[in-house]
Amino acid sequence: MKPPNRSRAQSAETELGWSRVTLRKGQHEVNSGFACLDALAFRGRKRTEDHLPNLHNDIDALMASQSQTDPSFKTMRLYTRLSAAEVRRQLILQKGYTDAELPTVRTLSTKLNQWNYYLRKVAKRKPKKKVPETDAIFEQVHQINTAADQAEDVLRISMDAKTAVKIGDFSRDGVSRVEVAAADHDFKPQTTLTPFGILLPQTADLFLYFSTSKITSDFIVDCLDDLWRTTLQPRSRRSRPWF
User: Which pTM was predicted?
Assistant: First the structure.
């Protein structure tokens, strides 16, 4: 029984592992004298702008009154107050698009970033409204503080804790005159410290303590006790703690 006839391209693919499609295309280029180019640009799904040619202009119209430029003028970014979901909703309400023809919120968010529209965090700059009792409250606080400063058996203090800080080889946007390198990620810090400060308003003395855990009432009492025994009691005329 004779074996089935096979083309030379099929034999090369079987024996040498070469693609017979590529071999046939090369043989066709040799015989025709024309180079065969793959139309890769026409493969896959088309961009949203190809399906909706007016989408970019319609989004620009929506963003015109809701965006502002980079305040530092270092980039061409436009910061907007509209989320991708809200932009999609306004396109339906104002521009006549249907829900079916518009891309998803995720795709629209990607397009907004590509077109230099970025969300910006709302800054806490708007002061709260003044209540009628505000002046009376501060007047009372001022009187109590003045009386405490004048009393010999009272020591006025101010205490506050700040955001936890990761300890390690991190840059924290710092600068240095010597060549140093910092870790590109802070996933595994050596430890995490929470700063806690005690201020003496009369003398402007500040004492800092650090905790590797959350700031608890026990920690605060321990800090006050340490501050009294090590610093305040030796220079105070009182023999007993002030807390």
Answer: 0.42
The whole-angstrom separation of Cα 135 and Cα 130 is 9
Percent helix, strand and coil across the chain, each to the nearest 5: 40, 15, 45
Check: CB of residue 221 under 8 Å from CB of residue 186.
no
Task: Retrieve residue 49's tokens.
Answer: 């702008």
Backbone angles phi, psi at 119, to 5 degrees: -70, 145
Task: Return d(Cα 23, Cα 10) in angstroms, integer.
Answer: 9
Do the Cβ atoms of 97 and 91 come closer than 8 Å?
A: yes
Q: What is the pLDDT of residues 2-47, one digit of tens each?
A: 444 457 777 877 877 888 888 888 888 888 888 877 776 667 677 8
CB atoms near residue 55 (< 10 Å): 21
For residues 89 and 59, the answer to whether their CB atoms sit within 8 Å is: no
Burial class from Cβ neighbours inside 10 Å (0-12, 13-18, 19+) for residue 58 reads middle
Distance between CA atoms of 83 and 71, rounded to whole angstroms? 20
For residues 31 and 206, give the distance between their C-alpha atoms in angstroms, rounded to a whole number: 88
Q: Report the alpha-carbon distance of residue 117 to residue 126 in Å, rounded.
A: 24
* Model pLDDT for residues 179-230, shown as the tens digit of each residue: 777 777 777 888 999 999 999 988 889 999 999 988 999 999 999 999 999 8
Q: Span 72-80, mean pLDDT?
A: 71
* Dist. CA 107–CA 91, nearest whole Å: 14
Beta strand pairing call for 191-200 and 165-167: antiparallel
Distance in angstroms (rounded) separating the CA atoms of residues 89 and 182: 44
Q: Which amino acid is at 151?
A: A
- Write the pLDDT tens digit of every residue in 101-111: 898 999 998 88
